[in-house]
Fold:
Amino acid sequence: MSAHGTPPGTGGSTSGGASTSTDVVHLDEGHHIGTGGLPARFPDPGLPPHIERLADRDAVAARRAERQVATLFGLSMLATLVFLVGYFAIDYTRGVFLPGIGYTNLLNVVLGVSMALSLFLIGAGAVHWAKTLMPDSEIVEERHPQRSDDASRTKAVDVILGGGDAAQLGRRPILKYSLGGALGLFALPFVVQVAGSLGNPTVAVRELGETIWDIAPGPDGKPGAPIRLFRDPEMTPIKVSDVTIGSVFHVMPETLKNSKHVLEDKGKAAVLLMRLAPTDFDPGAKGQKALSWGHDGIVAYSKLCTHVGCPVGLYEQTTHHLLCPCHQSTFDVTKDCEVIFGPAKRPLPQLKITVDDAGYLVAPEGFHEPVGPSYWER
Ligand code: FES
Structure:
């Protein structure tokens, strides 16, 4: 309603058509509320004019809208059926390659997409129904004080206080304590479920100690062939000449293609590959160890943060720091990914790499320690 910024005398528009030009308020004229400047009350602008919808006046349009809504609900049912069939029919170890995502688990994709579609289509149908067919009348409900009168408030307090007395909690304390015990124990099943779902940390450490970078010995007992480093998600091999100083690659092992548990294996095997000038590495023992496990300044580290396992995705090229976006743990690549800031308690595990005869980067052995979060016994 305010015509702030409108020159005096030029008038101004008011919404709802309920006001006239005499309602225009000029804030720069020094008037006071109720004395000719701002009015003590603004007029009610009223509701905007009701616009009749096509389906309100045309039975054919209403039937068309009805069919559209039913179609959306029907498609939702179809998506739910796809979810159910997929749940039972798809082998949970099957992987699929999706452009832009890479190798991932087929069952999870089907379940996720079908459930999302099923919910979305129910929502879309309900919105379309509301917009085209549901009653379109505007209703005004006058405000009224929320507070109850004093007599009702006093009565409510009496009822609450009198409840304890009526239940004889004061006179029979054994009831009070046994009820407290029963309710307290009732919470235990929930605690047990949560604690149980956290799993056995000893098993978790063992599982994090095995990744698909590990190379099984051949039938003759000798180490198997080294595993090539592949770009993620393109899954193409990486040549030494591809890795310029300052560049960083997201890497997966070539063996991911044969994985039967794509998501688990991918989650544990994620690696970051960087190239620094060999002189950038710290001259101390840590820096030189990192350099010697790499190839001409190219080094590879697990991408799983050693705090609680987020992907360490940010590389600062000038400082050679890796940063975990979850809680800001920072790792110094020049010192074998030593923790220099944040809650992580140990360096990122390094993956030994070298070069094969064709000039591609390979890992001759798996990680020497478990990847991912640190547990309290480590
Ligand atoms: S998970 Fe990386 S800092 Fe917490």
